[in-house]
Amino acid sequence: MDIASTRFRSQLLARLPFERPEDTVAWLGAVQAQDYAAALWAVGLRTRGATEDAVEQALTDGRIVRTWPMRGTLHFVAGADVRWLRALLAPYAVARAARRMRELELDARTIARAGDAFARALEGGRRVTRDAMRRVLADAGIDTGGQRAYQLLWRCAQDGPICPGPRQGKQHTFVLLDEWVPGERSRSMATTEEALAELATRYFQGHGPATLRDFTWWSGLPAAEARCALELAAPGLEEATVAGERLWLRPADTSPGTRLPPHLLPAFDEYLVGYADRSAVLDPARARHVNAGGGLLGPTIALNGRIAGTWKRRLRRDAVAVEARLFAPPRPTDARALERATQAYADFLGLTPELSIASY
């Protein structure tokens, strides 16, 4: 089994079965989204006929939600999944953050006061920007110094009732989850075991072949719970051993398929960030070109399923200029592939493509 090509297909990078952005997100389980524009493209490049406006409309409609389900990091999740994911993962995230909350002197009473203040500010379908939410805390007599405001927003999103909402111009907002995504639109899980099994199934269908270590990293679950989740999901997965390492994947993902298309992958794309070990698709000797420091992963170029370089963009009035930089001197076939990938990205943005190619 070639891990890279099989993973490329399970990640929806070789085929586009879905027309709705929320179905793409649900397939992957979650899409890392601290870089908002990059996350829009991460969904768009995996969704048939998608445009940036169409993906953002799914967020405006609550069909996709941007929140903190795992690892303390912003992700897109399907609106239908937000409640069961939060119920499963929030207790672990809250436990990991307990020391930081104590350092900031944010006790249970303060957190409850903040939640009540936020709820009053948001009721009636209001959307309030992050800066305005800070003022809500100040008006309630709650100190917002240091990172206290951010941590209270994060914690109240874990506990409910608030949730990051759609953009207001260029500003991100918060909303009441029950008003924005009513409960009847959400899936529920009868037991913790059902939720664990579903999380593992989503991960391995959208990221496989992958290891237990990869899943543990991605999910943010403690090791014992991650192992339990995999055991619960295993009857519906295929197991393979490659170079002495055990991997799991959705059985249908083993088909050879056609030649892998080129892609301009965004920063923090799941094709890289979704794994503890990225060496199957990225030469470790080239990792320094991709890592922007502090664990940040920049935009990359995928050719034949492997990371072959990096890219950056400049937005003009009617065009997007893509500067591609390959790890090896470009061949004519590379240039043609990059032209196709750049055209796809420009179509997503509704702009004219401009491409320049260099090498390291």
Spans of 5+ residues with little confidence (pLDDT < 50)? none
Q: List the domain count as a whole number.
A: 3
Largest sheet: 5 strands, mixed
Termini gap: 30 Å
Shape: globular
Taking Cα atoms only, what radius of gyration do you get, to the nearest Å? 21 Å
Order of neighbouring strands in the sheet with most strands: 9-12-13-14-15
Kindly report the average pLDDT value. Answer: 94
The class by helix and strand makeup works out as alpha+beta
Looking at how many chains there are and whether they match, the oligomeric state comes to single chain
SS field, number of helical segments: 16
State the share of residues found in helices, binned by percent: 40-55%
Q: Can you count the beta strands?
A: 15
The fraction of residues in strands falls at 15-25%
Notes on the structure:
This protein has 360 residues and is of the alpha+beta class. The chain has 3 domains: 53-185, no CATH class; 192-254, Arc Repressor Mutant, subunit A (Orthogonal Bundle), CATH 1.10.10.10; 282-359, no CATH class. Helices cover 44% and strands 22% of the residues. It contains 16 helices and 15 strands. The chain has helices at residues 3-10, 21-28, 36-44, 52-60, 82-96, 98-103, 108-122, 130-139, 148-159, 177-180, 192-207, 212-219, 223-233, 270-273, 287-290, 332-349, and strands spanning 31-32, 64-70, 73-78, 128-129, 162-168, 171-176, 238-242, 245-249, 263-265, 291-293, 296-297, 300-303, 306-315, 319-326, 352-359. It has a 5-stranded mixed β-sheet, covered by helices on one side. Strands 1-3-2 form a 3-stranded antiparallel β-sheet. It has a 3-stranded antiparallel β-sheet with strand order 4-6-5. A hairpin with a 2-residue loop joins strand 2 and strand 3 (73-78). The longest helix is centred in the last third of the chain and has 18 residues, at 332-349. The model has no long low-confidence stretch (mean pLDDT 94).
